[in-house]
Amino acid sequence: MGHIRIGTLPATKRWKEVVGLITEGAEVSKVAESTIHASELAFNKVHDDFAFREAVWLMTQFGVAGSKDNPAQHLDSLGIAVSGASSVVEVALAVAGELDRRIDASRRRSDFGEMAQRALISSITEHLQEKTPGLIPPTAGEIKARLGKLGKKKEFAQLSRSFFSKLTNQCLEYFLSKNLAAHVGEARRFATTEQLAQFEAALTKHCDEASAIVEDFSADWFSKNRFEGGGEISREKAEGFGWYALEKMRRELAERAKSDA
Q1: Which pTM was predicted?
Q2: How far is CA 224 from the centre of its chain?
Q3: How far is the C-alpha of 40 from the C-alpha of 17, rounded, in Å?
Q4: Domain chopping of the chain, boundaries
Q5: What is the pLDDT along the chain (261 residues), one digit of tens a residue?
Q6: Burial of 165 from C-beta contacts in 10 A (0-12 / 13-18 / 19+)
Q7: 28 closest CA partner among 16, 15, 42, 18
Q8: Which residues on adjacent β-strands are paired with residue 4?
Q9: In whole angstroms, what is the distance from residue 178 CA to residue 174 CA?
């Protein structure tokens, strides 16, 4: 109940342009920018998405927690039970569990919200795991130390960049996946599935490069709003931050498409 589908590929002029660009073998930047434009109407319908708002707010709370004497205690108070976590997987499960609880309680689950949930969990997991040599998992002590570092604006900005890069990439893949399969085969845009995989990898890299603009913005935003909030960040501030960051991503993708023209 309350499940909202973002939408199917509509037979509009904009979507025909997307299909045309894929068929013609256009650069990833052009396809990404065209897809963003073609999907604007669908995303406008979920501008008030509950799960997205919760994911962004919880992400800011990881930053707030990092500035506390006991980061884990602050996250525990939000329902993200990490005090007893001995692995990154347990932290990820705690985040996923709390987001699921909130979404289920709201009865407003959506595709876009699920993408935001996955992006947050993946970003936090990667942030806590990075800098670990080889395949050695970080210890409980190292995890707690890394949670504490998220109170630094540079660390929070990196987490934010990862989140919005992953979310944007998922959104583009969501719409493109409905059409890309039709362009795989002999005498088509992608002669093999390997070529399709290369295109998708390029799309992921493109989103990551574009998200650099969000990293710069996030660092200053986090420092300013945490100071003005006396060490805290309100839901209202977090929600405004989330939607503005997505808008910055949209504009950056458009600019990159122009520069590649």
Answers
A1: 0.84
A2: 22
A3: 14
A4: 13-259
A5: 334 444 444 445 555 565 566 666 667 777 677 776 656 655 565 567 899 999 999 999 999 999 999 999 999 999 999 998 889 999 999 999 999 999 999 988 888 889 999 999 999 999 998 755 556 788 888 898 999 999 999 999 999 999 999 998 888 787 777 666 666 667 666 767 787 777 778 778 888 888 999 999 999 999 999 999 999 999 999 999 998 998 888 888 778 777 655
A6: buried
A7: 18
A8: 110
A9: 7
What single-letter amino acid sits at 83? Answer: S
State both tokens at 223: 């420092």
> Token pair for residue 4?
């909202």
Task: Return the ∠ at Cα 174 (arms to 25 and 19), rounded to 5°.
Answer: 30
DSSP string, the chain: ---B--------HHHHHHHHHHHHT--HHHHHHHHHHHTHHHHHTTTT-HHHHHHHHHHHHHHHHHTSSSHHHHHHHTT---TT--SHHHHHHHHHHHHHHHHHHHT--BHHHHHHHHHHHHHHHHHHHTT--TTPPPPHHHHHHHHHHTTSHHHHHHHHHHHHHHHHHHHHHHHHHHHHGGGBSTTSSBSSHHHHHHHHHHHHHHHHHHTHHHHHHHHHHHHHHHHHTTT---HHHHHHHHHHHHHHHHHHHHHHHHHT-
